[in-house]
DNA sequence: CATATTTATATCGTTCACGATGCAAAAATA
DNA sequence: TATTTTTGCATCGTGAACGATATAAATATG
């Protein structure tokens, strides 16, 4: 079977790609009413944990480059979720801070994961099995993230 | 811990999203020289398994909608990898068939997975561990794919 | 102190994803 | 057969991702 490896069903990456797409899609019914997208939700998660971070730190946290994060933040600023102010010690930096609206969303987002979990539990039977993915995904991510994002 | 669930590190979806991004990114050094992107590679995988399929079947196989697949195929047609001809029995259909160029790429793509595996093995230590992801990802995908893509 | 390098962010172009919508052909139903 | 519904594909708009490149400020080096 010379081309056995070239079968779609033999490819882990396709599964990751699909699982990620579908999982992000599963957030849509919950995020759409809040007026945010999944990547925007990720930014909010980071800022809810700690407000007032430079673009760079947010990017590092999300393992994204600034050329992805900057426009994302600009859109979020335009929709009133956050503000970007010039850094004081380092004027190159842009400090991102939540607005009231951005802060308030936390309350509404609090139950998303519960709802989602219940939803998936119903469809998959078990949540524990999903939890087993975590350590391996973390190893994979660590192994693949060796491209040094500057900062 | 009222907001414990809203911590980035507690979220499986973020891991899937990141792992998928990084894994697709790992294909880049191999696909870029061939002049194709990862989604285009997926289309080729499908067509290499079976040539001359309607758009719909390809979309179903990749679990994507036609509004994603159609432009993808159009770009691939423009770069000479495939052709889209009107179906004979059903004139609504567009039958997608590989060109010589598209067929020939299979030979060059044959070793990508080996190289990639070696690469990841070096960074992660084990490939078996990655294989353990597969059944769980499949269950997750099946659970989440209940939105009926027409066809 | 002057120059070179690095760093933080931004801009641009291309390619996905995907919701919404449109349209013509096929199939189902009246 | 006439009409409705479904199906297969396409188009449009928006928001990511990401490679390449630019710019100014900070830092390192001469």
Description:
Two copies of one chain form a homodimer. Chain A is mainly alpha-helical and 151 residues long. The first copy, chain A, is built from eight helices and three strands, in the order H-H-E-H-H-E-E-H-H-H-H. Chain A has a domain at 8-110: Arc Repressor Mutant, subunit A (Orthogonal Bundle). In chain A, strands 1-3-2 form a three-stranded antiparallel sheet. In chain A, helix 3 packs across helix 4 (66-78). The radius of gyration of chain A is 18 Å and the shape is globular. Chain A starts with 11 loop residues before the first helix and ends in a 7-residue tail after the last helix. The mean pLDDT of chain A is 93. At the A-B interface, helix 1, helix 2, helix 6, helix 7 and helix 8 of A face helix 1, helix 2, helix 6, helix 7 and helix 8 of B. Chain A binds a DNA duplex (30 and 30 nucleotides) through residues 21, 24-25, 28, 37-40, 54-56, 64-72, 74-75, 87, 90-94, 150-151.
CATH superfamily of the domain at 8-110 in chain A: Winged helix-like DNA-binding domain superfamily/Winged helix DNA-binding domain
Rounded mean pLDDT score of chain A? 93
- The radius of gyration of chain A is 18 Å
Structural class of chain A: mainly alpha
| Low-pLDDT regions of chain A | none
Q: Could you say which overall geometry of chain A the principal axes of the C-alpha atoms support?
A: globular
Order of helices and strands of chain A: HHEHHEEHHHH
What is the highest CATH level, the class of the domain at 8-110 in chain A?
Mainly Alpha
**Overall number of strands of chain A:** 3
- Number of helices, counting only DSSP H or I runs of 4 residues or more of chain A: 8
Oligomeric state of the chains in view? homodimer
Strand portion of chain A, in percent?
5-15%
